[in-house]
Amino acid sequence: MKLYGGIDLHSSNNVVVLSDEEDKVVYRRRLPNDTGVVLAELGAFRQDIEGLVVESTYNWYWLVDGLMDVGFSVHLANTAAIVQYEGLKYADDESDARWLAKLLRLGLLPEGYIYPRQERAVRDLLRRRSKLVQQHSANLQSIQNLLTRSRGCSLSANQVKRLTDDEVDRLLPDADVALAVKGNLAVMRTQAGVIELLEKRVKGRTKLHPTLCGRKSWRGHEGKGRPIDRGQLNGDPFLNGCWIARPDPFLLLFVNQAHWRPLWF
Fold first, then answer.
1. What does 218-257 look like in DSSP terms, one character per residue?
2. What is the bridge-based pairing of β-strands 111-112 and 217-219?
3. What is the block-wise mean pLDDT of the chain (265 residues), using blocks of 10 residues?
4. Sheet (strand 3-9) strand order
5. Same domain flag for 173 and 254
6. Are 7 and 108 in the same domain?
7. Boundaries of domain holding 212
8. 5-14: string of b/e by CB count within 10 Å (b at 16+)?
9. DSSP classification of residue 84
10. Hey, which residues does 6 pair with through a beta bridge?
11. Nearest 10 degrees: Cα torsion 225, 210, 229, 201
12. Any idea what the CATH number is for the domain that residue 38 is in?
């Protein structure tokens, strides 16, 4: 008997459902987020399980890794692309897990990419950097807005970054407004230091993926060939010619110089 599993994952627990080829549920249970407990429960069905689907939530690493380590065929569900039938009578954790199992059985499951364990840390560093850059920009804009409201004109980004406390006091006689600007400046400078630290770490951990070496073009997810410009590869001031690549259909990942966000070919 072939079984298909769906796991509805939450912050402290998960709901596991196993169903057969006719979508009959043969196992259902809510389990704590403990790898040992989950593996012990699934062990009795090990030989019959064709595959297990895990929701692509913020905390999927531990569960997917644990299941794959013991040989289960694991699929990461792209939850944003999954739409339940409208008008379903039941919509709870068990029905969600059952639906994931059914999509797997039908071969209709929209899957997410299971990023290799050894590469996730660098990706997460880039995500953290992106968030810090956004927050840094928000603090900069806040200072510019305060200056405009108080003085009728603002300063450029570079001028704001060079402001000293004495210059802030001269520009803004109101002590409370000046303190607000100084607070933003202090946060900005701390963020800039952390951003620089993250950049140094990522630069030391990234390199051109071996599958790209010698290629003159790459076929993207829309089937269009895109040229690889070696000059462009070596021209990024942050990555210094090191593109982060991943071995899936959307292989080439790089960080855009202007926005520092992941872009795909």
1. EE-TTS-EEE--HHHHT--TTTTT--EE-SSTT-EEEE-T
2. unpaired
3. 95 96 96 97 95 94 96 93 60 89 95 88 89 95 95 94 96 95 97 94 75 53 44 40 36 37 35
4. 25-32, 13-19, 3-9, 49-55, 74-77, 111-112
5. no
6. yes
7. 206-265
8. bbbbbeeeeb
9. P
10. 17, 53
11. 130
12. 3.30.420.40
Cβ proximity of 26 and 19 under 8 Å: yes
* Burial grade of 234 (CB within 10 A; 0-12, 13-18, 19 or more): exposed
CA dihedral of 122, 126, 128, 132, whole degrees rounded to 10 = 150
Whole-angstrom distance, CA of residue 23 vs CA of residue 3: 9
Q: Are 101 and 18 in contact (CB under 8 A)?
A: yes
Amino acid at 52: L
Q: What pTM, to 2 d.p., does this model score?
A: 0.70
Amino acid at 91: A
Q: Which among 55, 83, 112 is the end of a domain? A: 112
For β-strands 13-19 and 25-32, DSSP reports them as antiparallel
User: Would you call 89 exposed, middle or buried from its count of C-beta atoms within 10 A (0-12, 13-18, 19+)?
Assistant: exposed
